[in-house]
Amino acid sequence: MDRKLGKIKSAGLEIKDRGILNFWLSVDYEDGCSQCVGNFALDAYDKDKEKRVGTAYGCEIIRQLLLTLNVDDFSEMKDLKVWIYGEGEGFSFSPKGISLLKVDGGGEVLIFDVVYKEFGKL
Predict the structure, then answer these.
(1) N or C: which end of the chain has fewer CB within 10 A?
(2) Residue 108 forms beta bridges with which residues?
(3) Which CATH number fits domain 2-119: 3.30.70, 2.115.10, 2.60.40, 2.40.50?
(4) Residue 9 and residue 6: Cα distance in Å, rounded?
(5) What span, in angstroms and rounded, lies between the C-alpha atoms of 88 and 61?
(6) What whole-number distance in Å separates Cα of residue 64 and Cα of residue 96?
């Protein structure tokens, strides 16, 4: 897996646009490109209840993001310098994880799929 150095321009949680809970991180990379990281559905549609409901995965990925980036809320992520781990090059780069730089207290790498494999069941 490759990694790209970036700075978080903004970060948020949202639900109102489409009724699907998701997180996003707007990242400016050292090489001059920008990308939105995240936008994963953190809730799921429950057929029995006929509505979207929270998931363990959604709660855990939010929790892990806060811990990995050493912040109390998403607004504190702005201006953090991070490594974004992923696959591909240029515009085909697909983010798979994130970590703080070691000089900023980082070290733990959050890989999104690892959390999904453990908590992704509705």
Answers:
(1) N
(2) none
(3) 2.40.50
(4) 9
(5) 23
(6) 14
For the chain, the structural domain boundaries read 2-119
Encode pLDDT of 75-109 as tens digits: 999 999 999 999 998 888 999 999 999 998 888 99
* CA angle 72–76–78, rounded 5-degree value: 155
**Tokens 């509505």 — which residue?**
51
For residue 100, list its beta bridge partners.
82
Phi/psi of residue 74, nearest 5 degrees: -65, -30
Residue 69 has pLDDT above 80, yes or no: yes
The single residue listed with the structure tokens 């699907």 is 20
